[in-house]
Amino acid sequence: MVAEVIINRGAKKLNRTFDYNIPKELEELILVGSKVLVPFGNGGKLTEAFVVGIKETSTFEVKDIAKLEENLSNKQIALAKWMAKRYFCNVSDCIKLMLTPGTRNKNKEKRIQDKTINCVYLKKDREEIEFEIEIGKLKSEKQKRVLSFIKDNEGATVPEIEMFTDCARGIVNTLVKNGYLEIVEKKVERNPLLGRDCEKTDKLKLTEEQEIAYKSVEETIDKEEYKQFLLYGVTGSGKTEVYLQLIEKVLTIGKNAIVLVPEISLTPQMLDRFISRFGKEEIAILHSKLSIGERHDEWERIREKKARIVIGARSAIFAPIENIGIIIIDEEHDSSYKSETNPRYHAKEIAKVLAKENQAPLVLGSATPDMTTFYNATNEDEFGNTKIKLLTLTKRANQSLLPKVEIIDLKQELANGNRSMLSMELYNSIEENLKQKRQTILFLNRRGYSTFIMCRNCGYTVKCPNCNISMTYHSYERKLKCHYCGHEENVVTICPECHSDKIRYFGTGTQKLEQEIHKQFPEASTIRMDIDTVTKKNSHEHILNTFKNENIDILIGTQMVVKGHHFPNVTLVGVIAADSSLNIDDYRANERTFQILTQVAGRAGRENLPGKVVIQTYNPDNFSIICAQKQNYDLFYETEIALREQLKYPPFCDIILIGLNSYQEAEIKNVSSKIYQYLEKRLNKEEFKVLRPMPCPIDKIQNRYRWRIIIKGKMTEEANEILNVCLKEIYQENIKDTRIAIDINPNNMS
Ligand code: ADP
Ligand code: ZN
Ligand code: ZN
Fold first, then answer.
1. For residue 346, what are the β-bridge partners?
2. 540 C-beta neighbours (distance < 10 Å), count
3. What is the pLDDT of residue 447?
4. Distance (Å, whole) CA 100 – CA 152
5. What is the mean pLDDT of residues 389-400?
6. How far is C-alpha 161 from the geometric centre of its chain's CA atoms?
7. Closest by alpha carbon to 613, among 623, 600, 625, 632?
8. What does the pLDDT average to over 710-719?
9. Which residues, in sequence order, are CB contacts of 471 under 8 Å at separation 6+?
10. Strand 156-157 to strand 116-122: parallel, antiparallel, or no bridges (unpaired)?
11. Cα–Cα distances in angstroms (integers) from residue 645 to residues 385, 594, 639, in the given order
12. How far apart are CA 704 and CA 660, in angstroms?
């Protein structure tokens, strides 16, 4: 076998691929993405290179690759191979997750210290770019290299791109000009998460409940066993303190720890807890706001065994840490642990594999556990054992009070003649809160001024010509926008169908709510956080800090507001319409609603101030809303699990989604029906129900048709094999343009 490599050096004439023979003993180990050393130039000096392709033979006489440099272990390779099967993707896609991010070209090392920097982002859709490369529309090797680098490192700076791809700035400019990339100017803020100094804190004396939980996991650590635990307790019940002491235990016996948290919860406050206990030397932090150079450094510190605790978001599970003594996944129900792009892995499944391999405990923590997790923690087999050991914390460790939660029936408000977005109760509460100089959060699960526009005469709605979904009116720019592809149109006032002037705007959004608040409370200061105000320049973190530090009266936001931060002065939370998450096209609608509302409610009244939550809804009888009001997970679980069992949804079966998309309608139909017939014939009819191919609810995005096949059944190794073979056979046929992705229990069904 022959590898095509790119030499990692600056000289322009080296900017092409070179062939190298793969020695027999490395054949199994070298893959696309490997970092290798090859003899190069006069005298055959060993030089660093990346494998970008593998082929059978070369037309040149080639030298051998001297060394595989990035020491991905056999275990990692095995994991990558396992993942490729399990998640229906290429092995190289998985290996990429495990390689050191970027590679530093030592000669060029320089820290970027300007006051503003230019960060580069993809402008075109990822898949679109891949497709253009596939069909040869994009030929320039340099352009391809820059694009593939940005695909993995969005937000990289121009100097970083120059350094890591050995391409000049001109290439970036060309790609910007041709609409592939965009450059966003950003102020450099010192990375808030690195280089913090905190006072050392000692461990707290555990409460009785914490002690029981701690001892139970400690026993597993001592026995060097694999076991799963669910640490179930409301926010503030002292889960983090238990994690901290377990990690301390693991460190004292010479082992290491991984802690996963949702990206959005990786706040300075959260990290301070760990840093002040263990010191920053021991800790490596991995998350998307680090620059590529910083990520590289953290990765190296782990590899060199300097950092012994890895804290990070989903992909930190692939950090090169050995001798793992414990893996902790906080907020284990969070949907960000499942990747929605290739490879579509679930960090929890990877964590399980690693914990088993290391004979270590896997501790999942949550106030609102995932349905499947709680099922596995409470459902006993015939010997009275559960798959997951349940550890419960029932009390708030710091004795702060749970907020008072009120549900307001919007139908009743309307009947009383109140047409405003605010019920009387919420209006009065805001007024009172303003008087007390306390802060309020208003939560709305939508964005834009209104969701759609419709002709009241004939029912015409403006839809995106590319995606076939309703376009949203943005009052600030007075434009209609498609939220899927960004297509914009001018506002219409006369119906293009029936020519009447009865065009009206329907629905409500954060902008409209903000305007309404200004009208009703002219003195109140407000700040808005939604997809439109959180931009690449203006981060989520920045808005929340402004809200907190400038003591702004009211924060208006979408669900982005619910996680992570801690606002001591917020005593009122209003949910404008709890119904929006109930109406999503997803079997988890109830679960998501319960989780969101419980979390939102948790924002109000922490520390010494009592809090109040007002939930407005058209469905005051819905059990997920009522259970959230009572902060009663157990009751929610009992009701929901019965529904899941009845309707055969996870944990009682898996939802396998085969998604297809293509420019060619005839082809996508043809391929879908071939897959359907193949699987229908081979999957066991008693265990699997294969539904007929159908257009997706959003049946076109950016001019690509979208179809899907849904299969309900419990995923097995055998079924996995059948699906893999099916994909292979389908791809061997003459498919021009159709892409296929298989996802198990995807987050998003649209
Ligand atoms: P969770 O992770 O469940 O939200 P934390 O571990 O953050 O809970 O604890 C909430 C608060 O209670 C923190 O301020 C923490 O310092 C405090 N706390 C936790 N455990 C104890 C304890 N055993 N004794 C006293 N205070 C505690
Ligand atoms: Zn009309
Ligand atoms: Zn669109």
1. 338
2. 18
3. 46
4. 12
5. 82
6. 24
7. 600
8. 92
9. 452, 453, 462, 463, 464, 480, 481, 482, 487, 489
10. antiparallel
11. 21, 18, 10
12. 10
Ligand at minimal distance from the CA of 495 is 2
pLDDT, greater one: 657 or 132: 657
Is the CB of 235 within 6 Å of ligand 1?
Answer: yes
CB-based contact 622:582 (threshold 8 Å): yes
pLDDT for position 535: 64
Stretch among 226-235, 241-250, 355-364, 415-424 having the lowest mean pLDDT: 415-424
Whether 270 lines ligand 1, by a CB cut-off of 6 Å, is no
Tokens 């501790």 — which residue? 363
The CB-based long-range contact list for 265-271 (8 Å cut-off, 24+ gap) reads 265/330, 265/331, 265/563, 265/564, 266/193, 266/311, 266/312, 266/313, 266/564, 267/541, 267/564, 267/565, 267/566, 268/192, 268/193, 268/196, 269/565, 269/566, 270/564, 271/193, 271/196, 271/311
Residues 6 or more apart in contact with residue 459 via CB below 8 angstroms = none
Percent of the chain whose predicted confidence (pLDDT) is above 70: 88
Backbone angles phi, psi at 52, to 5 degrees: -110, -15
> Phi-psi category of 179—alpha, beta or left, where left has phi over 0 and alpha has psi -120 to 50?
left
Query: Is the CB of residue 577 less than 8 Å from the CB of residue 589?
Result: no
- pLDDT of residue 376 exceeding 80: yes
Residue 358's Cα: distance from chain center in Å? 26
Residue 463: Cβ within 10 Å count = 15
Q: Which of 298, 302, 278, 279 is nearest to 288 (CA)?
A: 298
**For residue 694, what are the β-bridge partners?**
708
Amino acid at 687: E
Which ligand lies nearest the alpha carbon of 456? 2
Cβ(397) – ligand 1 distance below 6 Å: yes
Q: What is the Cα–Cα distance from 469 to 446, expressed in whole angstroms? A: 15
Residues 441 and 421: their CA atoms lie apart, in Å, by 15
Calculate how far, in angstroms, residue 456's C-alpha sits from the geometric centre of ligand 2: 7
> Quick one: which atom of ligand 1 is closest to the CA of 398?
12
Instruction: Give me the pLDDT at residue 586, please.
Output: 67
- Omega before residue 343 within 30° of 0, cis: yes
Neighbouring-strand partners of residue 157 = 119
| Beta carbons within 8 Å of 526's beta carbon, 6+ residues apart | 514, 517, 518, 552, 553, 554, 555, 556
- Work out the pLDDT band at 711, boundaries 50, 70, 90: very high
Ligand 3 ion: Cβ-proximal residues, 5 Å cutoff:
464, 466-467, 482, 484-485, 487
Under DSSP, the state recorded for 227 is E
SS3 percent helix, strand, coil of the chain, rounded to 5, is: 35, 25, 40
The minimum-distance atom of ligand 1 relative to the CA of 244 is 6
In DSSP terms, 18 is beta-bridged to: 5
Rounded distance from Cα 397 to ligand 1 centre (Å):
5
CB of 343 closer than 8 Å to CB of 353: no
Residue 402 to residue 396: CA distance in whole angstroms: 9
CB atoms within 10 A of CB 44: 11
Instruction: Output the CA 474–ligand 3 centroid distance in Å.
Output: 15
- pTM of the prediction? 0.81
In angstroms, the CA 615 to CA 601 distance is 9
User: If pLDDT is split at 50, 70 and 90, which confidence band does 662 have?
Assistant: very high
pLDDT class of 115 with cuts at 50, 70, 90: low
Is residue 708 within 8 Å of residue 676, measured between CB atoms? no
Q: How far is CA 710 from CA 67, 582, 645, 658, 739, in A?
A: 45, 21, 18, 6, 16
**From 203, 209, 231, 240, mutation site for ligand 1 pocket: most ligand atoms within 8 A of C-beta:** 240
